[in-house]
Amino acid sequence: MEETKIIYHIDDEDTPYLIKLPIPSDRVTLGDFKNALNRPNYKFFFKSMDDDFGVVKEEIIDDDAKLPCFNGRVVSWLVAAESSVSDTQSQCTESQAGDVPPAERVGGIGDSRPPSIHANPVMRGQTSDLCDTCTETDSVLSSRRESPPVRPGYRDNRNLPQVRPQPNNRPHLTQQQQRKCHPP
Predict the structure, then answer these.
(1) pTM exceeds 0.90
(2) Would you say residue 157 lies in a domain?
(3) What is the pLDDT of residues 115-143, one digit of tens each?
(4) Considering the domain boundaries, does residue 109 fall inside one?
């Protein structure tokens, strides 16, 4: 009998897990995966192929949905949900003025970090189609306004008073050379 290998990451853990289900990969569903894991209160994201964006992480909430398969295996990320019900419908429908979307990093192909630190693949590039209150964050670091770090051995002159050289004050010249340049 055929089996499906599912590699899954849980929250911020570095090492992924592997589970084998005795179901052919073209028939395995989210419900099959959930039953095998018995992990309530998690959101399930899967490596998927999008015609417009290529490889993305897609949240699947329908237990009857077939799981996307790459090279005979399914790659998944489990993220602890605040509640057992997925809140994908509330992400853009009603946003309060004080709400700030989380700053997240975009995952690349083969990036094994959980989607809790990746941008929401469903929203990327589609914000104007879904609502005009959604925003997209490309970088957390680009928004910081801190001063650059001071390198070891490098003198930080920002807090020192500025001294302007006087026309007669040329330390690299000898006194005799200075007299020639500026006679009394």
Answers:
(1) no
(2) no
(3) 554 444 444 444 444 444 444 444 444 44
(4) yes
> Could you tell me if 182 and 168 are in contact, meaning their C-beta atoms sit under 8 angstroms apart?
yes
- The pLDDT tens digits for 37-87 are 988 899 999 999 999 999 999 999 999 999 999 877 899 999 998 744 444
Cα gap 8→19, rounded to integer Å: 8
For the stretch 19-44, what's the b/e string if a residue is b when 16 or more beta carbons lie within 10 angstroms of its beta carbon? eebebebeebbbebbeeebeeeebbb
d(CA 54, CA 107): 12
68 assigned to some structural domain = yes
Tally of structural domains, the chain: 1
User: Between β-strands 73-80 and 42-50, what pairing exists: parallel, antiparallel or unpaired?
Assistant: antiparallel
Q: What does the block give as tokens for 110?
A: 């083969």
| CATH number, residue 49 | 2.40.240.130
